[in-house]
Amino acid sequence: MPSEGAKGRRILVIDDEATVCLSCMRILAADGHQVECLQDPNEGLKAALSGDYDVILLDLVMPELDGLEVLRRIRGAGVLSEVVIITGYSTVQTAVEAMKQGAADYVSKPFTPDELSMALVKVLERSDLIRENAELRRELDERRGFEGIVGNSRAMERVFVLIRRVAPTESTVLLTGESGTGKEMVARAIHRQSPRKDRLFIACDCSSLAATLLESELFGHVKGSFSGALATKQGMFEVADGGTLFLDEIANVSLETQGKLLRVLETRQLKRVGDTSLREIDIRLIAASNRDLAAMVRRGEFRQDLFYRLNVFPISVPPLRERGSDVPFLAMTFLERYRKGNPMIRAQGFTPEAMRLLEGYAWPGNVRELKNIVERIAILCDGDRIELQHLPPEVRGMTIQASYQLPRSWEEFKELKRQVRDAAIEELERKFLLEALERSGGNVSRAAEEVGMQRTNFHSLLRKYGLGSEDERNGD
To answer: pLDDT for 376-386, tens place per residue?
Structure first.
């Protein structure tokens, strides 16, 4: 039986045999389709060129005008109708040639009603998927309008409003949100919308450097000020002069460095490590944290005066689970981007079932996790669309208990138990890693030491779940 989505289509049958035309009409009309049959191939070609049909069933061997020539003319005219070849000469060679000319599938005479119906269902589902993905790309282009940030969910619209409000000012901005939500992209959007857009945007990850190195990285140093200072160096504050400085994961700055940072922000002057002279600086500061700075202030882990100095204009970047409607567009963005850099990738879109699963997943690793998973499954996918089987266990596992059919045999039940067990263990392992990273402020070495693992083993697990790329970029 055809699916509901495959019913009610306009179908043209071009075949010189009256019995074949009659059979197609009976079978397809019973499936709910509107069917027109033409035995004259020239008349059939004329009708096909109108482009009014969803599917054209085309006989290969006909007098005066053979099916392959009709197919070539249809495709040459840019007609988008799907074409299914009907052939009594079902050799591999004829089928391959028809597919090369643009046919979607073929059926061999004599065919049963089920064979014809199922061939049509498959072709229509493929056609629908191509149209859906094309529409998704069109919508995606429309949603790329705000500084390259994909999304038009209510949660992101609120962020966009705040960006537009604060960008033209000189106010300090504090971005908060879970790891992987795209805080740096928001910071860059603020910079690009600001009067400083033609000057430098400098980003510093405060979690990737030891406290002693961070101070030198921020404020610079003079030659000989410490072991290894072989030359005088400008810090990021000086490099960003006139532009925007983005301090990511500011919660990882030591209390001593926090004090120096506060003085620089208040006086707009800095002193390089080992220097005695003050230097004027002109920067717009944007800071970010995946931790609760107010709670850290209460615990004495973060300076209250610095918190107030940073928290002039707070923006909370929502986690992906609160903007589920953006998932399809983000997934297509990452897939398109990865395909452009890797011509061997065949996947062009997602099946509706796979996309529904991606939308329903909680995404504890947020946008970064989605990006990594899309890259992984694009590599694993051998077809033109990503299906349920390509999704990782942590995504697939959430439907095992909700939507599976009870097994009919003990062997099937044992296999289902294994799937549930593996999915549950992998999800727990993944959450274990995320929480360890959260406690360590994203520092892999510190997280590995805290949980009692070797750093290399911890890193391997991060890569397994697509969580390690940013740490590796930071050189942690």
So the answer is: 999 988 888 89
